[in-house]
Write a structure and sequence with these properties.
CATH architecture of the largest domain in chain B: 3-Layer(aba) Sandwich
Strand order of the largest sheet of chain B: 11-10-13-14
Helix content of chain B: 25-40%
Low-confidence stretches of chain A: 426-436
Low-confidence stretches of chain B: none
Distance between the termini of chain A: 50 Å
Mean pLDDT of chain B: 95
Strand order of the largest sheet of chain A: 6-5-9-7-8
CATH class of the largest domain in chain A: Alpha Beta
Shape of chain A: globular
Structural class of chain A: alpha/beta
Order of helices and strands of chain A: HHHHEHHEHEHEHHEEHEEHEHHHHHH
CATH topology of the largest domain in chain B: Rossmann fold
Largest sheet of chain A: 5 strands, mixed
CATH topology of the largest domain in chain A: Rossmann fold
Distance between the termini of chain B: 47 Å
Radius of gyration of chain A: 22 Å
Radius of gyration of chain B: 25 Å
Strand content of chain B: 5-15%
CATH superfamily of the largest domain in chain A: NADH-ubiquinone oxidoreductase 51kDa subunit
CATH architecture of the largest domain in chain A: 3-Layer(aba) Sandwich
Oligomer: heterodimer
Helix content of chain A: 40-55%
Strand content of chain A: 5-15%
Shape of chain B: globular
Number of strands of chain B: 17
CATH class of the largest domain in chain B: Alpha Beta
Number of strands of chain A: 9
Number of helices of chain A: 18
């Protein structure tokens, strides 16, 4: 059985990305034409049947989100595509934006039709400057071809897509922070409630979905929701783009069905990761970006699907799979994770602003061999408070990786308390100081 | 979630059912059943920010904790406000804040009045589990009115909300992110180079010791112990209905007599009343309005009693300065009269006069130090204390405020009409002026002295007053964001008012930045009621009928708006927009 598939990525690399002609020749905009003949609620039902879970990281059911927005009687509504792709180790949206932007546009267009919205915004991360140009060309070509703009395909439906560039802040990938950023406000998350479906972009009801989620919409309409579900597992339909990086031979983006492929396949199968370089052993792997959980070798036989991963305390998240070999000290790695969140926290809520730096300080104590057993209690208390009481997803997820390690790699913490790191003891360079 | 405030929702909080309108927050609903959920960033008069996360509660619908300040009961299952998990989370958040806070409560301006300290005490935090990460930053001492000590800031955002949403001044805002997240002026300039008008609403909003007025009490103690000086004190109208709160009296209780007694015991040579000079202001301002109405020039005329407002108009509407009444504020009229008329009358050399003001206000400190405020040849008002500073002096002197007898103000600058008293509340200056202007314009007494359409604490009030056939359109605004609405209309030529009263602070001086901490809209309302009662109970209720005012003109000033009056009682304004 093949471990990879080309459903979302069927056109990637096979057509000129901004060419409407080539896109249409390969079945493009057929889903949209199909949608025009459907009632909005029928389309939403297809998305619900497909059990598409949001691909941005939080895995919120897309159909449920669509239905909630549909029931809100306020207009105008806005369609927003989150292409901020800031999770470290995640570069799967990049593939779609770069190689098949029209698929994303078609997804947004269908959403626009469902919600009778006339404006869609795509917030593309600032580092994807070149991709923004490709995307802009795709929009322009779609407008000339009559798939965007006024009276699309001879109907009275009008829809435009606007590109907004990010400027490097991870927090702008949080949906409400993203909307603030589009509105030219500081990119800090909003207080919720009110929810974005009620009070979103420019205070109007708004749909925010990830690039890969939007790309899934035309696919769902083309093949039907039930068919889409069969590509995945019981409660989560479709294929998933995953991003392999770190200490693994074949780094890159792959599309896999969400059934039958295990974590071991992802890391070791020659069609996928192809194993660890230099004959080293796998130590752990980080799923879904810095905000995701860390997995260990004993979990390798878990199938990569939302359901199966959840059972062992892991999650899909954004789709990132960062592989780390035996030469990596877990404490060192967690310090980097903490550094990342200290850098990216917006700072407005106390648990996240003050918690991340305290976690970093405590981890440094482990590195320095001066931690005590009480520091476990401190880490656990901080982690729990941050996860339970932080304002947005950033603070709530900042200690997910730490939690995994406190459960599965406790002995490595204890080794540090005893002054012996199996990896880095005696190899630590001076200057590893903490300056927050 | 569709919120219909007419629909009632029933939830269980800690097992107790409570029925509240749809859209009610958990915090409000809990209050209904006698549970006060702790919080640091929440303030009933300000917008919800949910920064501090201290108010977290559990509910059966959510995996995570919910903040009680912003989450509504409609979206909650059964709510629990006091579980071990909640106590641990709240305690951890407090410890995190304290790890980044100087541990110098004994030396802090807000010692015993600090909301963080109170919570730390309530949670029994004796030892912090977390390492200190606190780093001091220099204080901003750039202006004569207030201090910003950002070392103590807990970044709750209450000051920002007061400055931006309530006052529309936008002197401070948020900058930076993560551990660098802070509250600061644009480009981190000192406050004196910002749009700040020193209204002190940020101080009133601050839960900790990060913002406070410049403490001038020592200057007053020094003056009081200097036998060469003749030290007189004036007390603003709104102080008498707030000072009692500092000593456990009811909110808004009238404590005029006890306040006078306390000031005498502190050692002031004479205890006078700013209400007296408020009457003087009305006579001058009424006549100024009368002549502007006759000439039709520079209308609408706008009041000038509120120093925060004067700072605001100088900084934001320099093109409209001609509209602002040239009358000094009652505080400054008092200073000028005390150091001339009174000093001469009592044969005290002017340089030996020391004038102290007790004000509900922080901006008054700045006003007293304006270079134009020295018409007596000396600084007319030497020191300005806030209501809070006066309370500190009374406590330090060991005076048991509650046990004091009721005493009367001294003469000749202590007798006031009820019109002078209501200067302390939004609409009061207008009402006081109308009571006098009516007679100037018509030569007749108004049928009723109560102009109820000018009362209350709506942000903007409008009225058409019938002066025996002549209609005068007036408007009243409190809070600078409301003032901005009126001023933009005036600037655009869309305002057909003849007279506008503007008070800088919400509710007027009763809600001033120098009033006792933890003022809310409800407390302001009590103080307003107090002032209207003072007015109602006054024998004289029109400024121009105050015999001490009449004597002042007779013996010294001559005519209202006359030459000497102009010299002593009027001022000019400066474009400070750059």
């Amino acid at each position: 059985m093949p471990k990879t598939m080309s459903v979302l990525t069927a056109r990637c690399g096979r057509i000129r990305p901004d060419s409407v002609k080539e896109y249409v020749a390969t079945g493009g905009f057929e889903a949209f034409r199909k949608a025009l003949a459907m009632e909005p609620m029928e389309i939403i039902n297809e998305v619900m049947d497909a059990k598409l879970l949001g691909r941005g990281g939080a895995s919120y059911p897309a159909g449920k989100k669509w239905k909630q927005l549909y029931e809100i009687p306020t207009f105008p509504k806005y369609i927003v595509c989150n292409a901020d792709e800031g999770e470290p180790g995640t570069f799967k949206d990049k593939v779609l934006l770069e190689k098949d932007p029209l698929l994303v546009i078609e997804g947004m267009l269908i959403a626009g039709y469902v919600f009778d919205s006339h404006d869609g915004y795509i917030y593309i991360r600032g580092e994807y400057r070149e991709i923004q140009r490709i995307f802009q060309a795709a929009i322009a070509n779609a407008e000339s071809a009559g798939f965007l703009g006024d009276n699309i395909c001879g109907t009275d439906f009008s829809f435009r897509v606007h590109i907004v560039s990010g400027a490097g802040a991870y927090i702008c990938g949080e949906n409400s922070g993203l909307l603030n950023s589009i509105e030219a406000k500081t990119g800090r998350p909003r207080v919720k409630p009110p929810h974005l479906a009620e009070v979103g972009l420019f205070s109007m009801p708004t749909l925010v979905n990830n690039v890969e989620s939007f790309a899934g919409i035309p696919v769902i309409l083309s093949m039907g929701g039930k068919q889409f579900l069969e590509l995945g597992s019981e409660n989560s339909g479709g294929t998933k783009l995953i991003c392999l990086s770190g200490n693994v031979n074949n780094r890159g983006t792959y599309e896999i069905p969400m059934h039958g492929v295990t974590l071991r396949d992802i890391i070791y199968d020659p069609e996928l990761g192809g194993g660890i370089p230099d004959g080293k052993e796998l130590k752990f792997f980080h799923l879904g970006g810095q905000s995701g959980p860390i997995g260990f070798p004993h979990q390798l036989d878990t199938v990569y699907s939302h359901d199966a991963l959840k059972k062992v305390g892991l999650s899909v998240g954004s789709g990132a799979v960062v592989v780390l070999d035996e030469s990596v000290c877990i404490i060192d790695y967690l310090k980097k994770v903490a550094d990342f969140f200290i850098h990216e926290s917006c700072g407005k809520c106390v648990p996240c602003r003050e918690g991340n730096r305290q976690i970093r300080l405590i981890l440094q104590k482990f590195s320095d061999g001066v931690a005590t057993m009480q520091d476990f209690e401190r880490l656990e208390r901080l982690s729990l408070t941050m996860a339970m009481a932080s304002s947005c997803g950033l603070g709530q997820a900042a200690t997910t990786a730490l939690d995994s390690c406190l459960i599965h790699a406790r002995e490595e913490f204890i080794a540090h308390i005893n002054g012996v790191c199996p990896v880095c003891f005696n190899s630590r360079k001076n200057g590893d100081t903490y300056a927050y | 979630m569709h919120i219909d405030p007419n629909k009632m929702v029933t939830v269980k909080i800690d097992g107790i059912p409570v029925t509240v309108p749809s859209g009610t927050t958990i915090m409000e609903a809990a209050k209904k059943i006698g549970i006060k959920i702790p919080s640091l960033c929440h303030h009933p008069d300000l917008t919800v920010r949910a920064f501090c996360r201290v108010c977290v509660v559990e509910d059966t619908w959510s995996r995570r904790l919910k903040t009680a300040c912003n989450n509504i009961v409609d979206e909650c299952g059964d709510i629990f406000t006091n579980t071990e998990g909640i106590r641990r989370a709240r305690r951890t958040i407090l410890e995190l804040l304290l790890a980044n806070h100087p541990q110098d409560c004994l030396h802090c301006e807000r010692n015993r009045k600090c909301e963080l300290q109170t919570l730390a005490e309530e949670f029994g935090i004796r030892k912090n589990a977390f390492d200190p990460v606190y780093r001091p930053v220099p204080k901003d001492l750039s202006n004569p009115a207030m201090v910003r000590d950002m070392s103590k800031c807990i970044r709750c955002g209450r000051c920002v909300d007061a400055c931006q949403a309530v006052q529309g001044v936008n002197a401070i805002g948020y900058a930076g992110r993560s551990t660098g997240f802070k509250i600061t002026t644009a480009f981190e300039k000192p406050l004196s180079e910002s749009p700040c008008v020193y209204c002190g609403q940020c101080i009133a909003a601050c839960p900790v010791g990060a913002l406070y007025e410049k403490d001038d009490t020592q200057k007053v103690w020094d003056a009081l112990s200097n036998k060469d000086l003749h030290v007189v004190v004036q007390t603003a109208p709104a102080v008498r209905v707030a000072i009692g709160e500092e000593f456990g009296m009811e909110k808004g209780a009238i404590a005029t007599g006890k306040m006078v007694a306390a000031l005498r015991r502190l050692g002031f040579d004479k205890v006078f009343d700013t209400n007296f000079s408020a009457d003087l202001t009305i006579v001058e301002e009424g006549n100024e309005l009368f002549s502007r109405l006759k000439s039709g020039k520079n209308l609408p005329m706008i009041t000038s009693c509120s120093p925060g407002w004067v700072n605001y108009v100088e900084k934001n509407y320099p093109d409209l300065l001609d509209h602002v009444s040239s009358c000094k504020s009652p505080q400054q009229m008092f200073g000028a009269v005390a150091k001339t008329y009174y000093a001469d009358k009592m044969e005290i050399p002017r340089e030996k006069m020391f004038v102290v003001s007790i004000m509900p206000c922080v901006a008054k400190k700045y006003e007293a130090q304006r270079p134009e405020m020295n018409s007596s040849g000396y600084q007319d008002v030497d020191v300005v204390l806030t209501t809070r500073e006066l309370a500190k002096m009374i406590r330090l002197a060991g005076i048991q405020f509650g046990a004091l007898p009721e005493e009367e103000f001294d003469s000749p600058l202590g007798l006031a009409s009820g019109a002078g008293a209501i200067f302390g509340t939004s609409g009061g200056v207008m009402e006081a002026a109308v009571r006098t202007v009516y007679e100037i314009v018509t030569g007749k007494e108004p049928q009723s002295l109560d102009f109820n359409e000018l009362r209350g604490h709506e942000g903007i009030k409008e009225a058409s007053l019938d002066l025996d056939g002549t209609t005068v359109k007036v408007a009243v605004a409190n809070g600078l964001s409301n003032a901005k609405i009126l001023m933009d209309k005036v600037r655009a030529g869309e305002a057909d008012y003849q007279f506008i009263e503007i008070m800088c602070c919400p509710g007027g001086c009763v809600g001033g930045g120098g009033q006792p901490f933890r003022t809310t809209a409800a407390i302001r309302s009590n103080r307003m009621t107090g002032l209207y009662k003072v007015d109602k109970d006054s024998k004289i209720r029109q400024s121009h009928k105050n015999p001490e005012i009449l004597a002042l003109y007779d013996e010294f000033l001559g005519e209202p708006n006359g030459h000497l009056a102009h010299e002593l009682l009027h001022t000019h304004y400066t474009d400070r927009s750059h």
